Amino acid sequence: MAESEEEVDVLVQRVVKDINNAFKRNPNIDEIGLIPCPEARYNRSPIVLVENKLGVESWCVKFLLPYVHNKLLLYRQRKQWLDREALVDITCTLLLLNPDFTTAWNVRKELLQCGALSPQKDLYLGKLALTKFPKSPETWIHRRWVLKQVLRECFPPEPDRKEQVGGDRCNAVERLRLGEHLHRVLHDEIKVCANAAGRYPSNYNAWSHRIWVVQHMAQDNLKVLHDELSSMRQWVSMHVSDHSGFHYRQFLLKCLVGALSLSPSSSPQTDARGLSLDCQRRLPQQVNGEATAAGSCPRSPEEQPLVPAVLFLFQQEMELCTDLIQSFPGHEALWCHRRHVFYLWHHWRRDHDHHNGKGCQSPQLNHTDAGLICHPRVASPGAVRLDRADSRNGPACESQDAMEVDGVPDPRDIKRLKRCLPGPPVLPSEHGFVASILDGCRSPEQGRFALAYRKWLDSVIGQ
């Protein structure tokens, strides 16, 4: 029996060393996994490295996992001494097999604090563990702790004034380097969250971590928020039943609305909307044109870019909801998302009107009739028609719109004009959308969700 235990110790020590050597040979390993193999068939290492994929034959796990587990516990109980290098190797092996072992992550925290580990190596280990265990809560918790250390490095405390005067140039270069490093970490972390969400449906831990990353590392950066919202458009279109993805999109929409509401007073030289160049080109044609045609009450220059930008965000989101609901009938997540977006718009419009005063309300935000609304009954998803039946704007506005249409020589621009976004979401337009869904409904689930949405509109918004 003693000889068999010694053989097992020799075996697992060799496996731990093979795992460490695999990372030294290929520092670009991007995925780990178990290879189904009930028993050892050849006299070779159970560690298989193919391109950037690391595999462990399953037969050795029953020997390897108890060994590294007991080793680490003996070290924590001060019954066995291990040097830093051995601790790094043992915790690495243990966490690749069982990433929810909190003690191993705590040991790596101590190693990181004493300088034996770098934050990049710890983030890399967690990234690999998430390829096999994408929902591991302890891994996500540890990543947040490591990212806090990175943030402390990128935002050190301000030096004294005397030291600051002598090293302004060095500090500027260092801040630029730290800013670029933080941007790379943010980009990599979002990519890790996206990969984990794709491996496990409705991965609440991954989406919660992504929200934390945006909150603490983006710091209301309008470009980051808008880029995230744009990149998520394709993801939610391919995962129409994933509530977590839509919840993250709702979070981004709230952050963008809040940041846009504060940004106009920050710097008049920068673009207060924080939108991408493509949206900046489309925004004056689709939103500002309607705002200037319908606006009868002058507003301050600081408020002028705010309403079109926020209105444009909600128009895009409602258009996305409409396309997905019509293309993929019978998915509750889509209707819940539409409900949340309309509720957020309704409250923002009410708060904005209350802030500006009832006597100076912009018509494009407050009218509840069919003016400037793309009615789903008369418009197909492929070609949206603007119904400008609102007579309050007068014939001058209609002639102005006609001049804009007649002055477009390119047929592609005419097609783009026909497909322009509808007016602000209002209660009659939502009732019309529900009616159009019920008219051509062939799915009982779709009809049930549409009726529930209409009931919610009447009971919550219509009061």
TrEMBL record:
Repeat is among the record's keywords: yes
PROSITE patterns from the UniProt entry: PFTA
GO cellular component: cytoplasm
Pfam families, per the entry: PPTA
GO molecular function: protein prenyltransferase activity
SUPFAM superfamilies: Protein prenylyltransferase
Protein keywords: Prenyltransferase, Repeat, Transferase
Family matches, as InterPro entries: Prenyl_trans_a (IPR002088)
Family of this protein: Belongs to the protein prenyltransferase subunit alpha family.
Name of the protein in question: Protein prenyltransferase alpha subunit repeat containing 1
Gene it is expressed from: PTAR1
